[in-house]
Specification:
Number of helices: 1
Helix content: under 10%
Structural class: mainly beta
Order of helices and strands: EEEEEEHEEEEE
Largest sheet: 5 strands, antiparallel
Distance between the termini: 46 Å
Radius of gyration: 19 Å
CATH topology: Deoxyuridine 5'-Triphosphate Nucleotidohydrolase, Chain A
Shape: globular
Strand content: 35-45%
Strand order of the largest sheet: 2-3-11-6-8
């Protein structure tokens, strides 16, 4: 099991927690002094009250919670958001309200989920041409259409 250092920046902060034994993502809760109202098609930066020290070669991905998306059209505009291994600041979540009604975020509300993932850095090798494939340069919507 991977160990990740975490510091509670606010004594009222809830630390990330897996809701079930096989959950991929941990719930992230809002750590705010007063409720924040998200009007339709607006964003807000919501603090979590904690900071992480990820091991080199890992990132934390912030993702929307499916229940918030389904019921209230609340999402993350930059999903998945990446927290790099060398970032030591407070984890904050950008929420957006895609719905038609205002949405109120309160302290302790589960607002996102976080997945810790291994990442590789690459070194590009510039070449004159790339190898060929059956797909070739077929792009957006090209695969799975049943058409050639």
């Amino acid at each position: 099991m991977l160990k990740v250092k975490i510091v509670r920046l606010n004594k009222q902060a809830s630390l990330p927690v897996y809701a079930t034994a096989h959950a991929a993502g941990m719930d992230i809760s809002a750590c705010i002094d007063e409720p924040i109202t998200l009007e339709p098609f607006t964003t807000a930066l919501i603090p979590s009250g904690f900071a992480l020290e990820l091991p080199e070669g890992y990132e934390a991905q912030l993702r929307p919670r499916s229940g918030l998306a389904l019921r209230s059209m609340i999402s993350l505009p930059n999903t998945p958001a990446t927290i790099d291994a060398d970032y030591r600041g407070e984890v904050k979540v950008i929420l957006i309200n895609y719905g038609k009604e205002p949405f109120i975020v309160r302290h302790g509300d589960r607002i996102a989920q976080m997945v810790i993932a291994r990442v590789e850095q690459v070194r590009f090798e510039e070449v004159d041409e790339l190898g060929s494939t059956v797909r070739g340069e077929g792009g957006f919507g090209h695969t799975g259409t049943g058409r050639t």
